Amino acid sequence: METQTHRPIRVLIAKPGLDGHDRGAKVIARALRDAGMEVIYTGLRQTPEMIADAALQEDVDAVGLSILSGAHNELLPRIVNVMRDRGLDDIPVIAGGIIPDEDAIALKKLGVAGVFGPGTSLSSIVDFLNTTCKH
């Protein structure tokens, strides 16, 4: 009989740009960890390149971005493109923060797998990652 080892979903949580508020990112990180996922938190003020490098080095199954600065239309597509350029386009990128619905639709068309605004239940984010991630 062949034995398969099942490892937890690995999620990178990052704060792109100059936004200095990380309470939401830490809440999400804790919820994912409590749901049995392995979480790598990169901290504040990450560039798209730093996020893609960390995703590659940490062999993650998903990247979660927390952005409150209003720069989501610039930063999120750049992150998706840098990840694609590095061969990481199979890793879903999700985003949370203050992102208007019309911007969320456009971001999804550009490759962001999911956008979660204020008031989203933590369990719905966990469920999304459990159904979306390949590992």
Order of H and E elements? EHEHEHEHEH
Largest sheet: 5 strands, parallel
Mean pLDDT: 92
List the uncertain runs: none
CATH class: Alpha Beta
Helical residue percent band: 40-55%
Distance between the termini: 21 Å
SSE class: alpha/beta
Number of strands: 5
What is the count of DSSP helices, taking H or I runs of 4+ residues? 5
Strand order of the largest sheet: 2-1-3-4-5
User: In the CATH classification, which architecture applies?
Assistant: 3-Layer(aba) Sandwich
Rg estimate, integer Å:
14 Å
Strand content: 15-25%
Q: Give me the CATH superfamily.
A: Cobalamin-binding domain
Q: Within the CATH hierarchy, at the fold level, what is the topology?
A: Rossmann fold
The number of distinct structural domains comes to: 1
Principal-axis shape equals: globular
Would you kindly provide a written description of the structure presented here, covering whatever features stand out?
It is a single chain. This protein has 135 residues and is an alpha/beta fold. It has one domain: Cobalamin-binding domain (Rossmann fold). It is built from five helices and five strands, in the order βαβαβαβαβα. It has a five-stranded parallel β-sheet, sandwiched between helices. Strand 4, helix 4 and strand 5 form a beta-alpha-beta unit. It starts with 9 loop residues before the first strand and ends with a helix. The mean pLDDT is 92.
